[in-house]
Amino acid sequence: MSPDPVRRSGDRPEVTNEGPQSQLTQRSTPELWGRLVAAVFALPDVVEAHSQVSPASSRAVFLDDRRDHRAPETGLAPDGRLEPVHLHGVDDTSLHLVLPPERGAELTGLGWAEPHQYGDFGTEFFVYGPRDDVELEAVLGFVREALAFARGEERSAPGVDAADPDGPPGDAADAREHGEQSVADWSFALGDPAAIATPPTPEQSAALERAAASLARARAAYAAAREAAADAEALIIAAHEAGASRDAIATHLDLAYTHVPALVSGERGLLPPIG
How far is residue 97's CA from residue 95's CA, in Å, rounded to a whole number? Predict the structure, then answer.
């Protein structure tokens, strides 16, 4: 579970009470929304797609390692592919995600969220778009919690701040499962012999190698995604300076994030200027 957030400052934003649930005030800036999208899709083992249940501008977060629901309440589209999170477009900037009811109620009480207007199971929540860097990290932590809930994981790996993009990913939990002694820090997961009292078993060694490889991949993907987000940010700033409308920027960002995998892999120059 993410570290308990502080109360969200200020009043709640205005939200629609009919039609698709959407945020009307206190939206993220286009730049901040773009960074949130890039950070979410840089998380390990997620797949970007169009939402099965939300407007066309929304981005669904699918799991690469799980297509089916372990229970109907762990997704936003119980009759389709597992969709634990979707991000609404730049003209909205909110999210829908699933969480254990008690955790969602806690975030609601702290002003970060409210129940999904059309929820069926009490696990669906509407999270407000972040307004600054601190809120972006908090919202990214809530997304991690939703993905863990969908996978059936009770909490993040021990010692990892869920808002820390450099924290060791899932395979380190496998290493700890095989461990016979308490591990003080993630140097164990990286194979530091000074961090353990006894040599690892063959099962531990294999798990540690997977953990180190997974960590390296996660850090590389995160760095590449940050670079892609910076590209998008530059385009957004140029669009504002050129007087482009919010709709034009939204349309262009839809195109941009369709190509995020290519951007992350290092292909530049795919996106035309915003007219």
Answer: 6
Q: What is the pTM of this model?
A: 0.58
Where are the chain's structural domains? Answer: 30-157+165-264
Contacts of 20 (CB under 8 A, 6+ apart): 54, 55
In DSSP terms, which residues pair with 127 in a beta bridge?
95, 113
Q: Which residue has the tokens 């995020």?
A: 260
The 10s digit of each residue's pLDDT in 200-236 is 677 777 777 777 777 777 777 766 776 766 667 677 7
Query: Taking a C-beta distance cutoff of 8 angstroms, is the pair 173, 47 a contact?
Result: no
- Token digits of residue 247: 């709709």
**Rg of the chain on CA atoms, in Å:** 19
Q: What are 58-117's pLDDT values in tens digits?
A: 999 999 999 999 999 999 999 999 999 999 999 999 999 999 999 999 999 999 999 998
CA 156 – CA 145 distance, rounded (Å) = 8
Give every CB contact of residue 180 below 8 A, 6+ residues apart in sequence: 198, 201
